[in-house]
Amino acid sequence: MKKKCNAPIFMTCLFVLLTLPAGAQESINSLEEITLGGVKQWILVRGEKASNPILLFLHGGPGFPQMPFTHVESNDLEKHFLVVNWDQRGAGKSFNPDIPPESMNIEQFMSDTHELIELLRTRYRKDKIFLIGHSWGTVLGLKTAYRFPELLHAYIGMGQVINMKEGEMLSYRYTVEKAREMEDVQAVGQLEKIGPPPYTDYPSLSTQRMLLAKFGGSFRKINYMTLGMYWSRSPHYTSDEKNSILNAMIKTQNIMWPQLQDVDFLKEITELKVPVYFFTGRFDYQTPWKLVERFYEGLKAPYKEIVWFEESGHVLNLEEPEFYQKMLITKVLKWNN
Q: So what CATH class is 26-162+221-335?
C-alpha cells in the first residue's frame, strides 16, 4: 500500500529549502554566459558552499584570462570562498570579433565590473565581496575599491599597476641592464631597435616582455611554455577557445594599451576606505615593486599591508600557488571576518 504524501510537511520542507541562504544546500560549479554592458561574457563560479564569501578575480592583459589556470591555483580557495573568474569582454571565452571597438575602453570595463559585482551580490545574497586584481586587473580593481568601497570586504592588488609610464620605463631599463650584464648582444640590439616605451605597436611590447621574462623580470619558477601547458589542460575551454587565447589578447591590447598610458594612481588615489593588500613578487619588474612600495607609503586606508612573495616575479599565484592561497585564506579572509 502506497503512503500518501503529507502535503503540509512537503510544503514546509520546500519553503525551508527555498529560504535558506543561497547555496547553503550544495556546492557551486557554474560555467555560464551572462550579459554585461550589452555584451555576452563568461563567468566561472566554483566553491564548496555558496554561503561562503565571494572572491572575484579580475584578470590581467588586457585580454589575458585567468580562467584557464584555476585548476592550478584555486583548489584550496574553493573550500573557503566562492571563487569567481570572469573572462572580460574581448578575452578568452568572451572574445567576439563583433564587439564594437569603441566599447573597449577603461570606463566600459569599469561599468562591466560594477555590474558583475551587483549581479553576484544579488544572486548569492551578499552585502560585500572580496576583490582581487592581477596586473591590468589591478587598474579596474583599485578604481573599483576607490569608487565603491561599500561593496567590498577588502581589495587585493597582485602585480599592482601604479604609474604606467614610469613602470614601463623601469621595466625597460631593467631589461637593458640585464642584457648588457649577461653580454647578450642580440638582446641589446633588439632593445635598442624598439627603443624605450611607450609602445604603440604590439610587436615592440611583445619583444620587451619576452626579453624581460628571459632575464627574470616576469617569472622566476615558470615561463611562457608553462603557461601554455597550463591553459592546454584547462577543463573550461574548448580546443578552439584555447587556440584563440593569444589572438584575442593581441586584438584587445592593440585597442587598450594606449589608454593605459595615462594611469597614474600616485596622483589619482591617496586614500581608500577599505582594507587593502598588495601581493607583490620580489622579482616583479613587469609592474615594478618599487612603485608599489612608494604608493603604499603614501596611501591612507583602514588597514594596509604588502605581502611579499620572495620566489616570484609577476605571476605569483602560479609561481607560489600554495602560499598565494594560504595568504588569501589565513590573512585576508580571517582578518576581515
A: alpha beta
Give the start-to-end residue ranges of the domains of the chain: 26-162+221-335, 168-214
Among 166, 187, 134, 108, which residue's Cα sits nearest to residue 294? 166
Q: What are the pLDDT digits (tens) for 97-131?
A: 999 999 999 999 999 999 999 999 999 999 999 99
Residues paired with residue 241 on neighbouring β-strands, in sequence order: none
**Distant-in-sequence, close-in-space partners of 198: CB < 8 Å, separation ≥ 6:** 165, 168, 258, 261
pLDDT (tens digit per residue) in 13-48: 333 334 444 444 589 999 999 999 999 999 999 999
Grid cell at residue 242: 584555447
Would you call 21 helix, strand, or coil by DSSP?
A: coil
In 10 A of CB 7, how many CB atoms? 8
Rg (CA), the chain: 21
Give the global pTM. 0.91
